[in-house]
Amino acid sequence: MKKKSQKILVTGGAGFIGSHLVDALVAKKHRVFVIDNLSTGFKKNVNPKAKFYKADLTNHTLTEKIIKKEKPAVIFHLAAQIDVRKSVADPLFESKNNVLASVNLIETALRNKVRKFIFSSTGGALYGDTHVRPTPEAFEPWPVSPYGIGKLTIEKYLHYAWKIHGLNFTALRYPNVYGPRQNPFGEVNVIAIFLRRMLQGKQPIINGNGTQTRDYIYIDDITSANLKALEKFDKVGIYNASTAKEKSVNDIFREINKHFSGKFKEFHGPAKPGEQKTSCLSFKKTKKELGWSPKVDFRTGIRKTFEWFKKNHA
After folding, report:
1. For residues 161, 165, 166 and 170, what is the CA-based torsion angle, rounded to 10 degrees?
2. Residue 157 among the catalytic residues
3. Tens digits of per-residue pLDDT, 188-221?
């Protein structure tokens, strides 16, 4: 276990999840630098004690130059195009921005003697609809989107880099992450989208019957999972960072609506074609091998997220 201060790179460190991780690493006295192209992140999210580079990982020459200069011992790789629907609409864009950029980053890490690579992967987009829920890591993934295929490809490439070149890695498979700083402008963040609309006095729209379920995890728990992966420095493998609990879109609407004294009606719009029906991940392996489990319950997480959005997006 490595407790001394380390030089750490966080890609996507201006984004929702990445900025929270940077804050936590800085609080633990690590020397942190961030690479982010600000396509979805915001410079204001970056901790002032972290060095910031505005750069795109698809610019392989610039990425190499920055890493060669900074010499990180650890890389947390969070930068990604995260919209599943966009990946379906443009698989080539997905491959360039997620797969090729990540493979280049791994190769750059090997050339510059990075000692640990911690990758933010996905759970639901890998496992798909399955009756085995909560779904364990041993369940064979057959992703049905270029986004999920890309994440799985990067996991396989990391396994190769470990087996052949000795690069320690941890891949954390996330469910649906929510909390403060989440970007409400998009198609994928239902909690953030609902909160922004409701704070503006607008009616939120539930796609379809609203019974589709996901495993929703609060940002602080994802941050702590990443810190555990760093703490267990020599532990290599793939781990779900999840709650093992399913919540429907209807559940989300009703919990958020409590903070508006129930003034909004439950309004349903057309279903999204091909939308995944269920997703829920087991964290038994993660608890056993990394000593991690989620701490924030759904009600508390929604309340904390509401309070932040009320202050920042009202």
Report:
1. -10
2. no
3. 689 999 999 999 999 999 999 999 999 999 999 9
Given the structure tokens 């986004």, which residue do they identify? 147
Is the same domain home to 75 and 222? yes
Both 133 and 12 in one domain: the answer is: yes
pLDDT at 1 over 50: no
Q: How many domains does the chain have?
A: 2
**pTM greater than 0.90:** yes
List the catalytic residue out of 147, 174, 216, 239.
Answer: 147
Q: Are residues 90 and 202 in the same domain?
A: no
